[in-house]
């Protein structure tokens, strides 16, 4: 196990593990890895932690994960063994107990292959991708097999608290936990479809009986297709195909699951399939997708895709595997809607009524997170051609939570409601009521120009500029009042003293923390618990003086407690540590309860010893931050513990604190005036250019 694994076992940070290695001669020696990333024996680490009183008991799920990650055949192989056993335990718990009690490790490894193969064939068919379950392969996994089965029977390591552990239903959360850890440990190897877009894509497909995902990855799209009776999947990576097959078999015990490991475009595993729906998040911008080998493939009904148009090859594959009037929903890069090399195929898709909707999602919806991806909704034309096909365009780019752009900034509830309302009306009535900036129905013939550009933003009328002239007048009134208040709050510097500046005895934040005059906490990600997910106060929020805008990442896997975030309270002082700027923010009641984000430190003063505004004011001094900063080649970092404060009586602190509070009110009013001014200027520009405001 690695240092990060030790930190998880003990519930501490990685820095604490590094300190233990330096300070304790008896700390276990590395047994592998490298000098910069050593690995340790689980049993030795567990014994040392328990002897030091740093660990009561290693959670069973952590034991299993450490056995997976240290398996001699690799984590992917170990997960195949674990998943197959979980499926066996879920289906036949009593048979597993008898086998577990009666057989030693060698006997268990000899008996399991035939049993597991029968269980897998029952769920996945004879030609499934879960290979390598032989006696010789399973013998090194005997301890893992028994521990994994115990994790399932205990109900996902919660002792069966949900009432499902006794009959093996803990197999699902157990496998999700292990798979989640594996994916987190290899983030660059796998491209995942987050739950938000996966759920929306499944909803757009309706309630199909049979669903295909030709680029299934970890099976997130098929898992979102609740109620489907037949699940078909294909994945080029053999390990991922095997793990996806096990995941789907565990999640949908009543469904027929068929998963194949092969390159879909070059070696289609389901050439005769006519599915009710196809859901896909295909790979983007592939040049080596089979252009030279597949020139005469019958799937190119709408035109042979160019080498640079791999996404249009996936679109046509999806249409070819649908029944007539079946629905396909694909996650697409925005360039696929406008590249000139694909205009002829897009034109034919429109003419024949195959492409029904293009939906623009906000940036951060799915990887790659930096661009606003599109959803294409397609329908295979039936026997009767549409006389005048139409296209629905929807733009949800503005439906964000208001924070910094990123994967946690999408308001999925609003996106889902907007998209489904438009699609259901379009699918039922053949059109929707136009909503400027959001949705519109277009006649296909109007799109068949030189470029056949299908980007929704280019075909939607803009919303009224800043709400129209009436709203602009209200913004102007607010700005006038704010500027007047700014003049009132403009501070009057006191006269310069005739004598030299005051020289106070100084202390540091580190000394105050050791003395108990304040509590010092570092911000971190934490994880979102199912029943409570506070917003996150980010460093951008602190610097810009805005409300908390971030969100906690979802907990990896579905078992175990969420990692507790640091929550801010009214009167706390929050300081960013990157960038070298002089910023300190006192938390008010409106911000209290938010989680503290990365690269922030929280200082919680004892009111009997320190005034919060006095503390925040002196922390912002330029000379103070300069002497407490360290410099790297590309960044400046603030050492909060080295920041200095004068030693003053509480009454004198409060006198300074009142002055600093007045400065903060003036600063916030300036920010508001700047925002209102920008809004008014842009609104007038838009109003004049769109004809909603006259020059006067």
Short description:
The chain is of the alpha/beta class. The protein contains 23 helices and 22 strands.
Task: Give the tags.
14% strand; 23 helices; 696 residues; alpha/beta; 4-stranded antiparallel beta sheet; 9-stranded mixed beta sheet; 22 strands
Structure description:
With 696 residues, the chain is an alpha/beta fold. Helices cover 40% and strands 14% of the residues. The chain has 23 helices and 22 strands. A nine-stranded mixed sheet has the order 5-4-3-6-7-9-8-10-11, with helices on both faces. A hairpin with a 4-residue loop joins strand 1 and strand 2 (38-39). The N and C termini lie far apart (73 Å).
Strands, helices and their partners?
Blueprint: H1 3-10, H2 14-23, E1 32-33, E2 38-39, H3 42-51, H4 60-69, H5 75-91, H6 93-102, H7 105-124, H8 135-138, H9 142-153, H10 171-185, H11 195-204, E3 210-213, H12 220-224, E4 230-235, H13 238-251, E5 256-261, E6 275-280, H14 310-320, E7 322-332, H15 343-351, E8 355-360, E9 374-379, E10 390-395, H16 412-429, E11 439-443, H17 444-447, H18 469-489, E12 506-508, H19 509-515, E13 518-522, E14 535-537, H20 539-544, E15 550-551, E16 573-576, E17 585-586, E18 595-596, E19 600-605, H21 612-619, H22 622-627, E20 629-631, E21 636-638, E22 644-646, H23 650-690
Parallel strand pairs: 3-4, 3-6, 4-5, 6-7, 8-10, 14-18
Antiparallel strand pairs: 1-2, 7-9, 8-9, 10-11, 12-22, 13-19, 14-15, 16-17, 16-19, 20-21
